[in-house]
Amino acid sequence: MFRNRLFRIQFFALLVGVILMLVKYVAYVVTNSNTILTDALESIVNIIAAVFALYSIVLASKPEDEDHPYGHGKIAFLSAGLEGFLIICAGIIILGKSIFTLFYPHQISQLEIGAAIIIVSGLINFLIGHYLEKEGERSRSLILIADGKHLKTDAYTSLGILIGIILIYVTNVLWLDSAIAIIISLYIIYSGAQLIRKSLKGIMDEADETLIESLLDYIKKHRKGNWIDIHNMRIIQYGSKLHVDCHMTLPWYYTLERAHDEADELDKSISQLHGEKVEFFIHLDPCIEVQCHICAYSECVKRKHPFEKKIEWSLDNITKNRKHGLAK
């Protein structure tokens, strides 16, 4: 049901995108405005990106198999990267045509109709984009988030286009049409580059400090005295699933069964935060004598040194591959 819901949301966005593209193209034919053509061409990119996003949702929902032991979620980053590439292509095409018509201007007509269409389509794109982005954040779907941001970018572009149309209508300066289209095309290219950058970060498994901090805050609230430290934490995202690795230091004299129970408790606490979309691998470490100074476990029966200071877990010490201790 969850996967079908994501598919239905994206399919709805695709249908709306097709309708808006046709409406914007009609507006361009009526007005002959480069600025409106900018919006119409970007809508074509929206549709192509939405189709691939739809396919990506289907593929990402497939379970793990022998060839893909971590699932198919990485397709989300490819989808976002392709969307960014298409946005850049549209921006370059718009930039080229706008520069040409800047030197060879043409007549523009019926801007009132064009402005009305841009207002309606821009508002619809913003609302749908906001909805997709929120649903993507809720379900941890990068595909929906990327498409939502794209549609919201399209809405901001429409706002710029509307301002341009008003200026052209008031001043009757025709070259403003191409000049505004050039500015908007540069913004479109920048937006595409940002999407590609985010895609590459995911493909290269770049550390997501915001995500690690959200997990860290939750772990600190559930921290137990015998959890002496957690270090070498790494998070990799596969679509909506998180793969978390970390080392957990426990009292050295714990039985294997007791240590496993503690690790299982940490696993369950994180899963409560992110649902079933977390895969946790915990490497268990025995404590060492020098850690007695930072160990707040009051029930320890093997303590060799008195407790001195509690080490607060932070992004700096929880991601490093070393046990916690007092600096000498």
What is the domain tally? Answer: 2
Strand order of the largest sheet: 1-2-3
What is the approximate shape?
A: elongated
* Helix percentage range: 55-70%
Major pleated sheet: 3 strands, mixed
Question: Which blocks of ≥5 consecutive residues have pLDDT under 50?
Answer: none
* Class computed from helices, strands and strand pairing: mainly alpha
The CATH topology of the largest domain, please?
Answer: Alpha-lytic protease prodomain-like
Rg from C-alpha positions? 27 Å
Average of per-residue pLDDT values: 80
CATH level 4 superfamily of the largest domain: Cation efflux protein transmembrane domain
Order of helices and strands: HHHHHHHEEHEH
Percent of residues in beta strands: 5-15%
CATH architecture of the largest domain: Up-down Bundle
Strand count: 3
CATH first level of the largest domain: Mainly Alpha
Distance between the termini: 55 Å
Structural description of this entry:
This protein has 328 residues and is mostly helical. It has two domains: 2-203, Cation efflux protein transmembrane domain (Alpha-lytic protease prodomain-like); 209-318, Alpha-Beta Plaits. Helices cover 64% and strands 9% of the residues. The protein is built from nine helices and three strands; from the N terminus they run αααααααββαβα. The protein has helices at 2-31, 34-60, 75-103, 111-139, 142-171, 175-203, 209-221, 256-274, 315-318, and strands spanning 229-238, 241-250, 278-286. It has a three-stranded mixed beta sheet with strand order 1-2-3, with helices on one face. Strand 1 and strand 2 form a beta hairpin. The longest helix has 30 residues, at 2-31. The protein starts with a helix and ends in a 10-residue tail after the last helix. The model has no long low-confidence stretch (mean pLDDT 80).
